[in-house]
Design a protein that fits this description.
Layout: E1 6-9, E2 13-17, E3 23-28, E4 31-34, E5 39-42, H1 46-63, E6 70-73, E7 78-82, E8 85-96, H2 99-105, E9 112-122, E10 131-132, H3 134-139, H4 145-167, E11 171-184, E12 189-194, E13 202-206, H5 216-219, H6 225-236
Antiparallel strand pairs: 1-2, 2-3, 3-7, 4-5, 6-7, 8-9, 8-11, 9-10, 11-12, 11-13
The structure holds guanosine-5'-monophosphate.
Guanosine-5'-monophosphate binds near residues 98, 177 and 201.
Length: about 250
């Protein structure tokens, strides 16, 4: 980890300069934070699981033609991704009411929404990632109208696809947050899915019992947090060989 140039350290990941120009290495930590960093902790093995889960989901998206930044997984905690010009907006898609939607609008958790709802949050730690409208995004130039149209199209396709994928393993996709970036080619620019897709940024409930299998177990002190993430990986068929024993602590970089 120490030999490469660190570009950025976030709450759950560290980014390093990649081996080739235009690439970045994402290192997944076990650190967890919630409520704008007011609550912090460690979820043992989370980084290893999120690296695998995000790899799996990004590859499935690529298979159906949704462009992502993912290149390949490098080892237990790292993946190679394409360097993007990031759009500073978190895009949340919701299928059932939960979290900040329930709190803000008083809609009971678990209420089915009449249709999928998209929300935008400005990624600005010092402002606690405020909810913003399309008008704000285009007026302040964070993304153009055309880019936003493409972002919405991609977000809804991701939602349809992941909803089905998770239902197939008896998991309800309640909501999730995506990030997007611009990937510049020779003479064109494409909007691609960035960051990660994992139980850190998706709400995932057992479809039958509604048991939570995501970061809400940490946010709400529900206990058995690691087990929630492990169960998602197990149902996806990607628990690392050797099982949860493999998930302890960081690994030497290969
Ligand atoms: P809420 O707005 O209800 O807190 O979150 C909606 C969804 O987006 C949840 O699945 C949540 O995990 C995800 N999400 C929202 N903001 C963030 C964030 O800053 N970081 C991460 N990891 N996930 C987020």
């Amino acid at each position: 980890m120490s030999r490469r140039r660190q570009i950025y350290e976030g709450k759950a990941k560290v980014l390093f300069e990649g081996p080739e120009p235009g690439t970045i290495v994402q290192y997944f930590k076990d650190d967890a934070s919630a409520f704008n960093n007011k609550k912090r902790g460690t979820i043992t093995g989370k980084g290893v699981l999120n690296n695998r889960i995000s790899e799996f989901l990004m590859l499935r998206l690529a298979e159906i033609g949704i462009p992502t930044h993912f290149v390949r997984r490098l080892n237990m905690r790292e993946q190679l991704v394409r360097e993007l010009e990031m759009i500073p907006i978190g895009v949340v898609v919701r299928n059932l009411a939960a979290g900040s939607l329930s709190t803000r609008l008083g809609i009971p958790e678990g209420t089915s929404l009449p249709r999928s709802i998209i929300e935008y949050y400005l990624k600005r730690d010092e402002l606690q990632d405020p909810l913003v409208s399309e008008e704000h995004i285009t007026a302040f130039g964070w993304a153009s109208t055309q880019e936003l149209d493409e972002i919405v199209q991609i977000a809804l396709r991701v939602n349809d696809f992941l909803t089905g994928l998770f239902l197939g393993i008896n998991i309800r996709l309640v909501d999730f947050k995506l990030e997007f970036g611009r990937l510049y080619g020779e003479d064109e620019m494409r909007i691609v899915v960035a960051d990660e897709i994992s139980p850190d940024n998706c709400r995932l409930w057992d479809a039958r019992t509604r048991e939570k299998m995501d970061k809400d177990r940490f946010r709400q002190d529900l206990g058995r947090v690691e087990e929630g993430y492990q169960e998602v990986a197990r149902r996806l068929g990607i628990l690392p060989e050797g099982g949860p024993g493999d998930l302890k602590g960081p690994r030497a970089i290969q």
